[in-house]
Task: structure prediction
Amino acid sequence: YNSTFKSDGVYTALRVAQQLLVTSPEFHTTNVISRNGSDRIAKPSLSTTSDEPYKALVYVYLFGGLDSFYMLAPHSSCGSLHQEYMNVRQEDGAALLNDRALELKADGQPCA
Result:
């Protein structure tokens, strides 16, 4: 939070704080966070053998790394729209280059 506040400002830092809050285990179990001064109780170790298949929840924190203009970007066949995209997105190093993009054909679209 502090480093984001210093580099990106109050609004981005607030967003980071909100994301950290809603991804914490306490928020999802009780919605109430209270300090009582004592350490958490360690859970007993789980058995390494089980008849049940292993399941895991993986949370990938993409701090703005996958936005709509990275998922679906104008390709070189779009002419001026592609050039405008490249001019804007290359400034922050986020442009999706043509050699890494799959060109899609869509009837009735501006770049079809």
